[in-house]
Every structure is written in C-alpha cells, then in structure tokens.
Design a protein that fits this description.
It contains three helices and seven strands, in the order βααββββββα. By secondary structure, it is α+β, with helices and mostly antiparallel strands. It has a four-stranded antiparallel beta sheet with strand order 1-2-3-4, with no helix packed on it. α1 runs antiparallel to α2.
C-alpha cells in the first residue's frame, strides 16, 4: 500500500494561486499608495513573498508518503522522502486505534515498539486503513492457510 496525503492543487495551480494573490495585494497597495499611503506597496511585496513562501512549504509537505509492504514474514513501513524504515514480524504486530486529545492515531505495535502510520490521513481514511491491515494480517496468520 502506498499512503499519500491528498493534494488540492497541482504545481501549476499553486503558481496561479500565488500570482492571483500577489496581483490582488499589489492592486490594493497601489490604491493605497494613490491615496497617500506610500508604504503600502512595500508592505504588499513583503506580504506576498511571505504568503508565497508559506504556501510553497505547505505544498511541499504533500510530498511525504508511506509505503507499507506485507509479506509472509514481515510488515515493513518505509517513510518517504528519506530512508527511514521500520519492520515488524507478521505474527507479533498488532494494529491499534488510539484516541487521545481529540485526535485518533493508528499505531502498529510489537515487542514494546510503537509506530504511528497515516498521520496525514483523515480519520475515515485511517479507520479504513486499520480495517484493511487487520484483515490482511488475520489472513496471513490464519493456521488453515498454512496447510
């Protein structure tokens, strides 16, 4: 399974949004300067740059993802971008749903280790992922399957 956050905008749409916001801010600043506020265009440039930077950072956060691989002996979670990886034995891993401080967390636990997965997903998506993982693990651990 490959878990990725939902993105509302493509890179092209993000550029368009930033352009429209900057144009609106500069137009408003131009009207302010025309009425005597000479610092309005400077403020609009600073504000437009800050908004563009913040939107870019938020958009790049959508690049993170998690790849969950399940085979006969292990469940592996790889966090991307990066090389961080966690592996759990199929027989011992448990899927837990914890609600704390108004936020639900989906955890994989085994031998005292705990790993949160799908933190960027909505609660409904995490619940669905939890059900899928439990079904897959149950099927792999079914003794009748081994005959």
């Amino acid at each position: 399974m490959w878990l990725k956050p939902n993105r509302a905008l493509s890179r092209r749409d993000l550029r368009r949004l930033i352009g429209v916001l900057a144009a609106l801010a500069l137009t408003t600043a131009g009207l302010g300067a025309w009425q005597g506020n000479v610092f309005a265009p400077l403020f609009a440039l600073v504000e437009s740059s800050a908004v563009a930077f913040a939107l870019g950072v938020a958009w790049r956060a959508g690049d993170r993802s998690e790849r969950i691989t399940l085979d006969e002996s292990s469940l592996e979670v790889q966090f991307l971008p990066g090389r961080r990886c966690a592996r759990f034995p199929v027989y011992w891993v448990r899927v837990q749903w914890k609600a704390e401080q108004g936020r639900a967390r989906l955890l994989l636990t085994s031998h005292g280790r705990e790993l949160e997965i799908g933190a960027f997903l909505a609660d409904e998506e995490r619940a669905e992922l939890s059900r899928k993982l439990m079904v897959l693990l149950r099927e792999l651990n079914d003794p009748r399957r081994r005959r």
